[in-house]
Write a structure and sequence with these properties.
heterodimer; A: mainly alpha; two-stranded antiparallel sheet; globular; B: mainly alpha; two-stranded antiparallel ribbon; 15 helices
Chain lengths: 287, 342
């Protein structure tokens, strides 16, 4: 029983990290219909900014500065680039791909590919039956829960959340009532980047980080977002948890070498049964 | 002269030029030239999906790798003669593509299609990783061509492969051009423009998409059977999603829906950075910037820029001569080739 609980907890930690990355991807896509390959770089930049700044300035100023850095980068990238590519998904794809290559390799050049450890909270919590889990992992679960709750309330209640959702639902109708899609797209990018920054901090607090960490999580996030339904935030949460837990149990009971396979298999099965994803009302079927 | 004949003539001319280059290219550049031919053929095949149907396949490199691996396994492990091994490998890849393609096109479209093909591609990479005793696992394995004796004209084996690869590129381009200029091509255009209307006309879009997917992926497999013995090495790195997505980037930068666009993209983004011998970090950095800037300023890619210059020149000269356009690829109506529909 206790072993199951530990595996479940580890699965939830992994699922939380997937959730944090996937939420940004799905939010950007839901509003702007851009599948942003450069989203993973926001995660990497945040993680590196925290790791480099924390020893000098202390944790709290480092977190604040990192968030500002990522938000500014996202705003610039959107204003200069993605704003012009809206409506042409091939152009958006190539642009985000170019950005991904550029940023990732710039970071490799500056910081090398050596894994770096972020600032982390030490200590363990005892579970029943003598198992332990690190406090850092529990904090990740807590942060994710808090962020999901905040995002849920924000999207449901705040002016900006309503603007984001209405643009995602019907761009033309939103434009009619005075919500220009291109400006709302900027909000979507900045909010996604903020979530990505939290994802970066969380990843850095439990695992070593390299310049390719963001891309690795990005591909997992694509899987998650497709399983949950492209553009659906609750779907992303559900799918991320499913995937995290599936991977944890799969690694323990089936074969740890197959960890990457579960997600792809799960996604293919979901797409073949429900092509629009688990929680997307809009139909994404082929003709 | 019909447009098909004109385009096929262009492809033949391209083949002739490339064959001459293959004989003349200096020895230390032969490998780079072969890489150009390989990537060129792969992207021209992929463009059949992206340019003609708007299908973003993110698993193209996986089929390329599948061709490479299967032919290697058949010839090296099982001792089949090479032509038989290669032919069987291509057929096997086409069958695999038919299964994957049919499942994918019937269930998904747009970005969903891109991601399901990405998942199938990654699954194929995992299959390679899981059976190291047959495939060499994630380390890859070397491929020997079995020909070590002296070759005529004092050519290296690589130069012979150049000619084979020129053949593969010409075949690929001819197939793609012939399909585009046929009734099949008109129906593909119609599906891309308006799937519902095409359906109402009595054509099943799934069938056309699946066939195009099998053709493009089968050609990728064929190129794989030639590339593996050429480099003498196969590894899962050939077939990963980053490769597939890179190919997509190449065509988008070059310009969709024409052979010349795909080749320009390969030359500009893949080959020139290698030619300049930049280090492994600077190269993708520059590639990334180039890719982002080109698509930002000209959504139709480099071929779109060329069209623009040609139109400008035509206007300033006042002649209509330039409407025929030089170059090997089919020069269609550029504005129709990149659609911006959702």
């Amino acid at each position: 029983m206790s072993e199951w609980l530990v595996i479940l907890l580890y699965g939830i930690v992994q699922g939380s990290l997937y959730t944090l990355v996937a939420l940004g991807v799905t939010l950007t896509f839901g509003v702007t219909h851009i599948l942003n390959f450069a989203h993973g770089e926001f995660v990497t930049i945040a993680a590196f900014a925290l790791i480099l700044l924390a020893p000098e300035w202390g944790i709290v100023p480092a977190i604040g500065t990192s968030i500002v850095i990522v938000a500014v980068i996202a705003a610039v990238v959107y204003t200069v680039g993605f704003r012009r590519t809206m409506g042409n998904h091939l152009q958006g794809l190539a642009l985000s791909l170019g950005l991904l290559l550029f940023i990732e390799n710039l970071m490799v050049r500056e910081f090398s590919t050596n894994p770096r450890r972020g600032p982390r909270v030490d200590g363990f919590v005892d579970l029943w039956g003598g198992d332990r889990i690190s406090v850092a992992r529990l904090i990740v679960i807590g942060v994710t829960a808090a962020l999901v709750a905040a995002l849920y309330l924000g999207l449901k209640r705040s002016w900006m959340g309503i603007a984001l959702r209405s643009c995602g639902d019907d761009e033309l109708a939103a434009a009619t009532i005075g919500l220009p899609a291109r400006r709302v797209g900027l909000y979507a990018f900045v909010v996604s980047a903020l979530v990505a920054a939290v994802a970066g901090f969380s990843i850095a607090s439990v695992t070593p980080v390299t310049p390719s960490t963001g891309v690795d999580y990005l591909f997992k996030a694509f899987v998650v977002v497709i399983i949950g339904g492209l553009g659906s935030a609750p779907g992303a949460l559900l799918a991320a948890m499913l995937l995290g837990i599936l991977e944890a149990f799969g690694a323990r009971y089936i074969d740890p070498g197959l960890t990457n396979v579960y997600g792809f298999v799960l996604m293919i099965v979901v797409l073949l049964i429900a092509p629009q994803g688990l929680m997307n009302r809009r139909v994404a079927r082929a003709g | 002269m019909s447009r098909l004949a004109r385009d096929l003539g262009g492809v033949a001319l391209l083949g002739l030029v490339l064959a001459v280059v293959a004989v003349q290219v200096p020895e230390q550049r032969v490998l780079l030239f072969n890489l150009f031919l390989t990537f060129g053929a792969l992207t021209v095949a992929l463009d059949l999906l992206v340019g003609s149907l708007g299908m973003l396949s993110a698993g193209h490199a996986a089929f390329f790798g599948a061709g490479a691996y299967l032919s290697t396994i058949f010839s090296q492990r099982w001792g089949w003669p090479l032509p038989l091994a290669a032919a069987t490998a291509v057929i096997a890849v086409a069958v695999l593509a038919a299964a994957i393609g049919y499942a994918s096109v019937t269930r998904t479209a747009g970005m969903h299609f891109a991601i399901i093909t990405f998942a199938f591609g990654q699954l194929m990479v995992e299959v390679v990783n899981q059976f190291p005793e047959i495939t060499g696992g994630s380390e890859g394995q070397s491929v020997s061509w079995g020909l070590d004796e002296d070759l005529p004209f004092d050519w290296s084996i690589y130069r012979y492969f150049s000619l084979w690869l020129v053949g593969a590129l010409v075949l690929t381009a001819a197939v793609v051009v012939a399909l585009r200029r046929s009734q099949f091509g008109l129906r593909m255009q119609s599906i891309k423009d308006d799937e519902a209307v095409t359906k109402a006309l009595g054509f099943n879009p799934r069938w056309y998409k699946a066939v195009a997917f099998v053709v493009a992926s089968g050609l990728a497999g064929l190129i794989g059977t030639l590339y593996a013995p050429m480099t003498g090495f196969v590894s899962p790195q050939f077939m990963g999603v980053d490769q597939s997505v890179f190919f997509l980037g190449l065509i988008i930068v070059g310009g969709l829906g024409r052979v010349s666009g795909a080749l320009i993209g390969v030359l500009l983004v893949a080959i020139i950075p290698l030619y300049l011998e930049l280090d492994a970090v600077t190269r993708p950095l520059i590639v990334g910037v180039t890719m982002a800037l080109v698509v930002l300023f000209e959504p139709n890619g480099v071929a779109g820029i060329a069209d623009r210059i040609r139109r400008l020149a035509a206007r300033s000269i006042g002649g209509r001569r330039s409407s025929d356009g030089p170059g090997a690829g089919p020069v269609g109506e550029p504005d129709r080739l990149v659609s911006t529909h959702e």
